[in-house]
Amino acid sequence: MILSFLQHQWKAFWRSKNTGKSIAVRVVMAFLLLYLFANVLVVAYFLDEILDELFPLERIVDAFNGVILYYFLFDLLMRFQLQELPTLSVRPYLTLRVTRNQIVNYLSISSLWTGFNLAPVMLTLPFLFKQVLPYHGVGIFWGYLLAIIGLTLFNHFFSLWFKRKVNLNSWFLLAFVGVVAGLGLLDFHWHVISISYVSKLLFNHLYQQPVLAIIPLFMAIVIFFINYKFLKNNLYLDELRSDHSGEKTSTDISFFNRFGIAGELAATELKLILRNKRPSSSLKICGIMMFYGLLFYTNPVYAASFGWKIFAAMFMTGIFIINYGQFMFSWQASHFDGIMAHKIKALDFFKSKLILFYTFSSITYILTIPYVYFGWKVLLVQSVMVLWNLGVNTTIVLYFATRNYRRIDLTKGASFNWEGVGASQWILSIPLFTLPFVVYAPFGLLGQPMAGILCIGFIGLAGMITRNFWLNLLVKEFSEKRYLIAEGFRNE
Questions:
Q1: How far is 304 from 11, CA to CA, in rounded Å?
Q2: Neighbouring C-alpha atoms within 13 Å toward the C-beta of 56
Q3: Structural domain boundaries of the chain?
Q4: Structure confidence by residue, pLDDT tens digits, 102-137
Q5: Who's near 311: CB < 8 A, 6+ residues apart?
Q6: Residue 81 and residue 309: Cα distance in Å, rounded?
Q7: Which of 197, 316, 396, 481 is surrounded by the most beta carbons within 10 Å?
Q8: Which residues are listed as membrane-spanning (predicted)?
């Protein structure tokens, strides 16, 4: 049955109207992956020398043991952001003599073909051949190799299971971000724990008793069955989203009801974000960007500069506006004609976008308040930049949205996906990233950085106060361009 599924996927690919574009993208991706794997092999061959340079006082095997857990934690973060969920249009099969077990088996097996599963083996196998097999024997060599394979498979199936859980409930994402942030602070900032020490402790035991490699393999088997059971019980969209209890779902947020039609549109778009791969990645990036301050506020060089504080705060408080807003209104390309046919005022349509922008920027601002630990100036800059994002960047993003005619397939993932990217996105980045520095630069050169910061905040606040004026201009612009936008979405 798996071969039949593969044949169906193959035929669906070649019969798609976007086959030419898909082939071109896959060819480019193939060359990129070959280049990345070539770099991995080079690093793998010289890994023992690299470790010897970084940890000259330790044995090479001990240094290797100390970085294994760091690698797999980083691997898990990268998988969560970049690894795609295996897909199959299961609805046509549900009325045929195809069992759910067969469908789940296909999804589980087909998901294994990913570069993330090849990279750990490619990276460590040359090291094991050079440093472990000649000096420590075949048993320890196989112990390390099986442990690495077990951890790789554990990360693989855990990331698939966790991403599906996040698609159902975004609180899992916040919990994940909190755990990662906590581990990072406890290890690198407060030095309460040491992941390197734990890694050495575990793998030194493996070095002495290679049979312990069965533990990572057992963990991989357990998470495989957990993912298998979850996928089988939630096989298709209706089961994932249905609510038979008669109670409100998590996306029926009463908070939006107070804004009338605009609030209903915002709530509907929030459901679109949560239920589809490509837009939901914007929320994941919001969570990841919460750690951006750790790169700047903990570095004395960056921490002493208001310019770097502006840069970090702009991204942390406005990443949803920047990342999600750059593809406005492409997210709704598939039903844009329906929006135009309904009795929806353009003003309410634009207000719904502002409601989403204001909501997510306020949330990210609140979540970044703890950065006041690095000084009250950090909180001041973040407060100023959230005003700038809400008062200025929202208007810029919505203006460029009236010149975006490229549609987006919501079901595709965001990783290495260039669909919807055009000239408007590149041009949009210029005012978004440069305008606050244009305002701040004269004051910075005159030695009055605080005045520059306050000026940025004043302009942002003025933009929020005069919001209705800018909305009316945007509605007028949209009214002139809406038929061109709709035509562009249809022709893609």
A1: 58
A2: 1
A3: 32-241, 261-491
A4: 888 888 888 888 888 999 999 999 999 999 999 999
A5: 296
A6: 25
A7: 316
A8: 23-47, 63-82, 103-129, 141-162, 171-191, 211-231, 281-298, 310-333, 354-373, 379-402, 423-443, 449-475
